[in-house]
Amino acid sequence: MNIVFKIHQGLQKVAKQLGVEKPGFRVVSNNGPDGQQEVDHLHYHLMGGRQLKWEI
């Protein structure tokens, strides 16, 4: 099984524990200074619990 698939399975489990799996959630990974990455390592943000919008 590939590592990205395992990561997403874990994210789905966390979303379920937080109660945001069914209404929906977003997973974000920031990359580089223009992506607002402040810590130089791979990490994910799981966001949910309300209607999310893209603000540009």
From TrEMBL:
Pfam families: HIT. Gene3D superfamilies: HIT-like (3.30.428.10). Residues 7-51 form the HIT domain. This is Histidine triad (HIT) family protein.
